[in-house]
Design brief:
Number of strands: 12
CATH superfamily of the largest domain: 4-hydroxy-3-methylbut-2-enyl diphosphate reductase, catalytic domain
Order of helices and strands: EHEHEEHEHEHEHEHHEHEEHEH
Helix content: 25-40%
CATH architecture of the largest domain: 3-Layer(aba) Sandwich
CATH topology of the largest domain: Cobalt-precorrin-4 Transmethylase, domain 1
CATH class of the largest domain: Alpha Beta
Shape: flat
């Protein structure tokens, strides 16, 4: 039997679950424990099929809209945040609801509301159609939040008053891309107000920094995550931009394109903020089957953030 080729596998740290995702999953599990199944969840609680399927098995029912939920069962809003109209509709129907919005997304909502109260029009840097963008823009009346996705979008913005503007950002964007858009905004609207503290969340930033450190060493990189996960897709882009020509997103080990990895001796592995560690281990195991693997951890930050679950779940 031919001996396996050697492979140095660089494992990014931090990777995988962030505090907001951890909290959101815990909220669904605790709700099922407290109220029994079924518990309804509006949208995927986090963008990961494996996680969603696991919660579905425990008794969670995932729906697109609130009108698909019965009045007499609890409903949970996803970690990405929801427009203000959603909890208002749940209250009007006297439903029990639990908001699993990540506290760092809620921070952006509060910021946007504060700017609005000061009479400012808000520009949001984000991806059109992403649940977080929809949720943030839905905090304020129509027309009060304008969306930009690229520096080019800034040039065509039609604003009410160039001196009465503030900007916020989606929390899961590429740090580098966002810098370019902020620079374009500040260049066109010198009076624009920004957040006191950057909106891009600590976990997104930390995972991107680890990828940059790894990209210089690895011939190829795999990001474990879902195709609808913004922060996972950004990790692939960051890896490519940092010099790793082959960077791919995989949901599970069975999606690995082995032919493209033929002949490599170094590989980087990371995971998006909604991908569980069990899937990372599955990918590592697949490489151990085919290679003589040495694992090296590339650590660029340590995380010890924890978010409390809502009071309604802590009450006996």
């Amino acid at each position: 039997m031919p001996s396996k080729p050697d492979l140095t596998l660089y494992l990014a740290a931090p990777r995988g679950f962030c505090a907001g995702v951890d909290r959101a999953i815990k909220i669904v599990e605790m709700a099922i424990e407290k109220w029994g199944a079924p518990v309804y969840v509006r949208h995927e609680i986090v963008h990961n099929k494996f996680v969603v399927d696991g919660l579905r098995e425990k008794g969670a029912v995932f729906v697109d809209e609130l009108d698909q939920c019965p009045d007499d069962r609890p409903v949970i809003f996803s970690a990405h945040g929801v427009p203000k109209s959603v909890p208002a509709a749940a209250s009007a129907r006297e439903m029990i609801y639990v908001d699993a919005t990540c506290p760092l997304v809620s921070k952006v909502h509060i910021e946007a509301a504060r700017h609005f109260e000061q009479g400012l029009q808000i520009i949001m840097i984000g991806h059109e159609g992403h649940p977080e963008t929809i949720g943030t823009m839905g905090q304020l009346p129509k027309g009060e939040v304008l969306l930009v996705e690229t520096p080019a979008d800034v040039a065509t913005l039609d604003v009410r008053d160039p001196n009465g503007l503030a900007f916020v950002t989606q929390t899961t964007l590429s740090v580098d891309d966002t810098k370019d858009i902020v620079a374009a905004l500040q260049s066109r609207f010198p009076a624009i107000q920004g957040p006191h503290k950057e909106d891009i969340c600590y976990a997104t930033t930390n995972r991107q920094e680890a990828v940059k450190a790894m990209a210089a060493k690895a011939e190829a990189m795999l990001v474990v995550g879902a195709p609808n996960s913004s922060n996972s897709k950004r990790l692939v882009e960051v890896g490519r931009r940092a010099g790793c020509d082959y960077a791919q997103l995989v949901q599970r080990a069975d999606e690995i394109d082995w032919r493209s990895l033929d002949g490599i001796s170094t590989l980087g592995v990371t995971a998006g903020a909604s991908a569980p560690e069990v899937l990372v281990n599955e990918v590592i195991a697949a490489f151990i089957d085919r290679f003589n693997v040495t694992v090296e951890v590339i650590e660029t930050a340590q995380e010890n953030v924890e978010f409390k679950v809502p009071r309604i779940l802590r009450a006996v």
